[in-house]
């Protein structure tokens, strides 16, 4: 794993020959991760004056689609700033198609906001190990070191989510050699909110004008209830049912070449979205059959909702079917 650590540092300008002498290592409890990649050993490196590097090993032979590795950084050593003291999140997510998505994220005061890394971050992964290096200047880190929380996560198309924190206590203080290892515990919020949707009517007329939803009951539309496990914002989109043909396991647009294929329902997203703030517990608004400033025409639709809490954690997507009539 030390080779992986040095490889990641080299991606951002070269690793120091003194790196192995100045790495800090800690281990994580194994077998307590559920289905998430089971983190075992973490290495932190402060030897390079330009970069900070973190490497990790996990029990699985490789990352699968839906897996993610995350490094949370308290770069200013101030527990009063960031999300529970954490200022940046560096993530590597293996998408369902097998490609990797590397994200540089900053806490903006109310949620995690994605930003271009500008070449300041580099991930490197190979079987059972991964590492990331980030320039100190980009995250505002000083020579005093940083506080770190490393985590792994696995989701299955939004139906379940498992997380493994390393260390389990919630933080590791990465300091130059000889510095005191002290400080308060940091525990990031990695729990996705739960969301339950309901429509009072599945068949209704759409309003001819006005907003997508109303806070009070209305004569036109359907009462949309949404229950969330914690306060946050719920974003709604709409998909319309269209004709399709089944080709290689997918429902695609009908063409002359696939006219002999089995019919299917192809769900196409309608342009636009709307969002409502929700308190923990039951909430309700009236969905008026409008989205993106336009009235939905007669037909079959699905309303999808996804909740996000203050820490930027997103719920599984919830779907409810409805039909618009004249």
Under CATH, the topology of the largest domain can be stated as: Immunoglobulin-like
What would CATH call the class of the largest domain? Mainly Beta
What is the helix/strand order?
Answer: HEEEEEEEEEHEEEEEEEEEEEEEEEE
Question: What is the SS-derived class?
Answer: mainly beta
Q: Approximately what portion of the residues adopt beta-strand conformation?
A: over 45%
Tally of individual helices: 2
Question: Unreliable runs, pLDDT <50, ≥5 residues?
Answer: 15-21
Q: What is the typical, i.e. mean, pLDDT?
A: 86
CATH architecture of the largest domain, by name, is: Sandwich
Shape: elongated
How many separate structural domains?
A: 2
CA-based gyration radius = 24 Å
Helix content: under 10%
In total, how many beta strands?
A: 25
Sheet with most strands = 7 strands, antiparallel
Distance between the termini: 64 Å
């Amino acid at each position: 794993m030390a080779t992986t650590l040095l490889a990641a540092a080299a991606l951002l300008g070269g690793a120091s020959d003194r790196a192995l002498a100045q790495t800090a290592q800690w281990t994580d409890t194994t077998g307590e991760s559920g289905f998430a990649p089971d983190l075992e050993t973490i290495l932190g490196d402060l030897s390079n004056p330009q970069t900070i590097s973190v490497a990790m090993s996990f029990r699985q032979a490789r990352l699968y689609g839906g897996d993610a590795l995350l490094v949370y950084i308290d770069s200013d050593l101030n527990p009063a700033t960031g999300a529970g003291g954490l200022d940046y999140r560096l993530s590597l997510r293996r998408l369902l198609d097998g490609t990797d998505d590397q994200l540089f994220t900053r806490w903006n005061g109310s949620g995690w906001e994605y930003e271009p890394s500008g070449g300041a971050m580099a991930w490197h992964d190979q079987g059972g190990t991964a590492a990331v290096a980030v320039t100190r200047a980009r995250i505002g880190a000083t020579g005093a070191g940083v506080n770190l929380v490393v985590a792994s996560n696995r989701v299955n198309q939004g139906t379940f989510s498992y997380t493994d924190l390393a260390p389990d206590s919630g933080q590791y203080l990465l300091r130059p050699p000889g510095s005191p290892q002290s400080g308060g515990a940091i525990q990031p919020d990695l729990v996705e909110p739960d969301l339950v949707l309901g429509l009072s009517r599945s068949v209704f007329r759409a309003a001819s004008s006005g907003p997508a939803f109303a806070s009070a009951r209305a004569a036109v539309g359907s009462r949309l209830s949404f229950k969330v496990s914690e306060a946050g914002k719920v974003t709604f989109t709409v998909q319309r049912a269209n004709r399709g043909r089944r080709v290689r396991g997918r429902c695609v647009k009908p063409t002359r070449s696939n006219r002999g294929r089995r019919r299917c329902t192809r769900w196409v997203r309608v342009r636009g979205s709307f969002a409502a703030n929700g308190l923990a517990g039951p909430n309700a608004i009236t969905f008026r059959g409008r989205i993106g400033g336009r009235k939905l025409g007669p037909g079959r639709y699905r309303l999808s909702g996804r909740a996000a809490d203050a820490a930027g954690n997103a719920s599984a997507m919830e779907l409810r079917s409805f039909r618009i009539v004249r």
